[in-house]
Amino acid sequence: MSVTITQGFLDHEIFGIVSDVAASLGVRAFVIGGYVRDCFLGRPSKDIDIVVEGSGIELAEAVGQRVRSHVSVFRNFGTAMLRFKGIEVEFVGARKESYRRDSRKPIVEDGTLEDDQLRRDFTINAMAFSLQKDDFGALVDPFGGIRDLAAGIIRTPLDPDTTYSDDPLRMVRAIRFATKLTTSEQVFSIVPESLESIRRNRERMEILSKERIVEELNKILVTPKPSIGFRLLDETGLLDYIMPQLSKLKGVETVEGKGHKENFSHTLEVLDNVAAYEIDAIAAGRLKDFVFEDGVEVERVRTEPNVWLRWAALLHDIAKPATKRYDPALGWTFHGHEVVGARWIPKIFQGLKMPLNEKMKYVQKLVSLHLRPIALVTDEVTDSAVRRLLFDAGNDIDDLMLLCNADITSKNSRKVARLHANFELVKAKLVEVEAKDAIRNFKNPITGDYVMDLFGIEPCNTIGMLKEMVKNAILDGVIENSFEAADVFMRQKAAEMGLYPVK
């Protein structure tokens, strides 16, 4: 299919420049992939892929000279990239690929535009705009990608068994696009023969690196409705290969006619709730991120979804199968699942080759604390309980509250409405207590150096005991959060221990 596009998709200055430079070098260049797809979907895109029948690096360097922009060259991959007026442009030579059964790495050779389109994952990503002078703006669509876009279809250009066996990551990518592109106006679905092919080829996941899989999972997680992707991962059998812990959440066990909540569906509902709540909060400027710049913590208004908050939602009940018990008096219980779940997080992250740094600790913290605000909803909200929650959560309190609010799910709409109303009271109490006591990111007014100097002692357990007493006294509301009050209290406790100032 080749038709001329007149909707202004190629109005940006960069396209005319690339066209001119390509003509001067005697090569054919095309815009291909996501930018073309997003043009027809009416989605903004600042990433442009240029495929060249020739050297992509040579064209990139020539364009870089023309626009006076630095060119990053990746010779191992045969690609180059530059930025120009807010647009990121990547150049690559047209290629044809062949695969060996036992490897995910293709044998790559120079090719034509047609060869390059054949190796693309899906028809909607294989469309191209010509940048040649004689047919500038012509759509080259050999596989009916424009038709599939209109129908909301994810389909491979080649036989799906070939496409998925060659590069099994495309199976996860199919699910990611079905998730990402679905809106309230249009649903995207994977064609039945492609879904069946994914099921047939799911064992091929074993040759993929965990890093590549996680990159796709992260892209699914930050969509407006990530449950679509995880349900498809489950339906196709891919979830068992990626995260068998999630698969174990499925099913309902019944004893004496009593069944528990279906935890897999609940988890996905919470995940979608978190996504919706976070999108609304970002739009309203209500969420903050705290980053270190030159060793100083700086507050920033969040502008993009926090993928680690989404991971916390996905894993918040991960240990329920391991802690499930039936009590004839109480019914089904999952006591301690937040503690066990938090303990599992490092192993899960390690298994997926995910970072074992502050990001992992953030997820771990939210999983371990996710029941605390719910407990405050059902019990009398005391200042002491609120202080301890603020102390334990620190700067992550807003994300924790968002997660916990999302965790309120029930088929009983009245119960949900009541819990949400009570939850608003807890949030108000948090604001009130924080404004009064400044507990968030609490720093003990009493330092170890001060204690040693005051009492003339060397480092010992007594110092830690005194500091802990001060901390608990502040959190319990016994004394105010100030040095003066803490000093008086600490001296009293020290005297009870037979310890007196030497100066």
Write the layout of secondary structure elements.
Elements: E1 2-4, H1 13-25, E2 28-32, H2 34-41, E3 47-53, H3 56-67, E4 71-74, E5 79-84, E6 87-93, E7 95-98, E8 107-110, H4 113-118, E9 128-130, E10 138-140, H5 145-151, E11 153-154, H6 160-166, H7 169-181, E12 189-190, H8 192-200, H9 210-221, H10 227-235, H11 238-242, H12 244-247, E13 254-255, E14 258-259, H13 263-283, E15 288-293, E16 296-301, H14 307-315, H15 320-323, E17 325-327, E18 331-333, H16 337-351, H17 358-369, H18 372-378, H19 383-393, H20 397-406, H21 413-437, H22 448-455, H23 461-475, H24 483-496
Parallel strand pairs: 3-6, 11-12
Antiparallel strand pairs: 1-10, 2-3, 2-9, 4-5, 5-6, 7-8, 9-10, 13-14, 15-16, 17-18
Helix pairs in contact: 1-3, 7-9, 7-10, 13-14, 13-20, 14-17, 16-17, 18-21, 19-21, 23-24
Notes on the structure:
- The chain is α+β, with helices and mostly antiparallel strands and 503 residues long.
- It has four domains: 1-151, Beta Polymerase, domain 2 (2-Layer Sandwich); 153-242, Hydrophobic Seed Protein (Orthogonal Bundle); 262-437, no CATH class; 448-496, no CATH class.
- The chain is 51% helix and 14% strand.
- It has 24 helices and 18 strands.
- The strands form six sheets. Strands 1-10-9-2-3-6-5-4 form an eight-stranded mixed β-sheet. The chain has a two-stranded antiparallel ribbon with strand order 7-8. A two-stranded parallel ribbon has the order 11-12.
- Strand 4 (71-74) and strand 5 (79-84) form a beta hairpin.
- Helix 14 (307-315) packs across helix 17 (358-369) and helix 16 packs antiparallel against helix 17 (358-369).
- It starts with a strand and ends in a 7-residue tail after the last helix.
- The mean pLDDT is 91.
